[in-house]
Structure formats: structure tokens, C-alpha cells
Amino acid sequence: MALQSLLTKIGCRSPSLEQLGHKYKCDKVTVHHYEDRYEQHLRPIRKDLRNILEIGVGGGNAPNSGGESLWMWQDYFPHARLYGLDIYDKHHLDNNRIHTFIIDQSNTDSLSEFARKHGPFDLIIDDGSHRGVDITAALRVLYPYLKDDCYYVIEDIQTSYWGDFGGSSIAYNVPETATNLLKHLIDIIHSGEMTCEDTPAKQTGWAVSELHVYHNIAFIKKTATVAPSRVLNQEYAAHQRMMDEKNNRGLEVANQHWGQDAVFRHDVLSKSCQNGG
Q: What is the C-alpha to C-alpha distance for residues 209 and 88, in angstroms, rounded to an integer?
């Protein structure tokens, strides 16, 4: 403790994410100000992470552009291998710890093949197209390749309200936006409280222990098993199912709602589970 205190005083403490963001001119810090949220969730474990995936390298198709976040992460996670996926060639960034691949996140076959080869991951960050349909597709494919007790981060979820990205500020509950996806993850967290086994939230086969939603960014924490109910017993669950049917809020109505927004339809669920779930 005395040594750490001395090192901190003389400036030997590892730089903050804010300092690194400004050093590399990374817009996660200079524009979006996500640094505090990343520090909150990742600083305590930053030296433990070994395999990190980020969708979206930045810089568009300009030659020798992008990579600011990968450089920042390279310093912040000192022992991690970093994978960056982008629709443009970013191989000029490759070194012994940074590895880039030309992959469109909407191409689920390529994404699945990549994940099988290079996963599982300690951290996944989606900073890609910011289109809800792509965010949803990537999560379906990659979530099974995220290690338990690790985070899946979705950035720039404000695009859920912007027309250029398939979102809307006018229509409520637009299908396949990031915010709509996050609402369904709340159902998955609470699926242990659901009295019917055939609900879409249970059929994902996923388990989520935590969901942290902040301004424009969300952190999803994976767990191995769904938390069981602390209240329901067999008799009480049967009573709730009866009341559910009586109030016309049973499985048929639920499936109509879930099927309409297509976030977790049965057909895509079975495909994603076959890919690694």
C-alpha cells in the first residue's frame, strides 16, 4: 500500500481512460464522454481481460485512417489481444496485439465464422453501423461467444430515434432498434419469474445478470444461468398462469408482440443457438 501510494504521488499510476482518449483523439472520450462509464465497469478488471472484440474501427474508407479506440484500448488493457472489425481495410493498424478484419456486422455468416475461430471474448463492444437491425443481428451471433461474467457494450444507442439509422422519434416501439432490444433484455433478466416455459425470453437460452443503460451507451453482463425466482413456488406459479390466461395476457398475445418487432423470433433464436449458444 505504501509503495502504491508513493507511485501514485509521483505520477506512476496508470493513465485514466480520459487521458488516453485525449492522447489518441478517440471520440469515445472527446465527443461522447463514455470514459466514466467504461472506467466504472472495467477499470477493476482491466488487467484481467485477454481477448477483446470491437465492431467498428473508424475513419471510413480514408487511407490509413481510424484505429483511435484500438490504440486507446491497447494501453488501457495491457494484457489483451484486440480484434477490430470494419467494412473497410484497416490492416495498417495491425501489430502483435491489434488484429483487424474486413467484416460487415450485418453478414452473420462471416461474423459467426470469425467468432468461432477467435472467441470466446472477455469484452465485446459494438461501435459499428449503429443501425438497430445490425446491432440486433450482431448480438444474436456474438452473445454465445461472450464469456460468463463479462460485458457486451452497445454504443450510440441514440440512433434508435434517428431515421437515417432505422429509428424514429415519432413512432413508438420501432422494430429492431437498440433501445427496443434492451427492453427485451429486461425480460430475459426476469425470465426466472415467468410462469410459462414457452415464452420467447426463455427460449433464447441466454442468461443476463445485469443491464446498465446510460445516456447513449449500454452495458450487458452475461451470466451462466438465469436467476431463479425467490417468490414463486409450484402452486403460486400455477395460480399466476391461470390469472394470466384469464386476463388475456398469455403466450399467444406475448408471441404476437415479440414476433411483431422480430428481435427474438423463434426462427432467428434457433439459428443463433445453433451458432454457439
A: 35
Q: Is residue 1 part of a domain?
A: no
What's the predicted TM-score (pTM) here?
Answer: 0.85
Q: How many domains does the chain have?
A: 1
Q: Is the distance from CB of 135 to CB of 126 less than 8 angstroms?
A: yes
C-alpha cell at 120: 470466446
Q: Is residue 3 part of a domain?
A: no
**Active-site residues: which are they?**
130
Say whether the peptide bond before residue 120 is cis (omega within 30 degrees of 0).
Answer: yes
* Length of the chain (residues): 277
Burial class (CB in 10 A: 0-12, 13-18, 19+), 234: exposed
Q: What is the H or E stretch that residue 221 is in?
A: strand 217-222
Grid look-up 419469474 returns 193
Q: What is the pLDDT of residues 86-141, one digit of tens each?
A: 999 999 999 999 999 999 999 999 999 999 999 999 999 999 999 999 999 999 99
CATH number at residue 223: 3.40.50.150
Grid cell locating 153: 457494450
pLDDT tens per residue across span 140-180: 999 999 999 999 999 999 999 999 999 999 987 777 899 99
Instruction: For 53-89, write each residue's pLDDT tens digit.
Output: 999 999 999 999 999 999 999 999 999 999 999 999 9
**Does residue 144 belong to any structural domain of this protein?**
yes
Q: What are phi and psi of 87, to 5 degrees?
A: -80, -10
Q: Which residues contact 265 (CB under 8 A, 6 or more apart)?
A: 200, 258, 259
Give the Å distances, CA to CA, from 240 to 196, 226, 256. 10, 20, 20
Instruction: Find the domain containing 26 and state its range.
Output: 9-274
CA 147 to chain centre: 12
Sequence-ordered strand ranges (E) for the chain: 51-55, 81-86, 98-102, 121-126, 146-155, 208-214, 217-222
Q: Give a yes or no: residue 4 inside a domain.
A: no
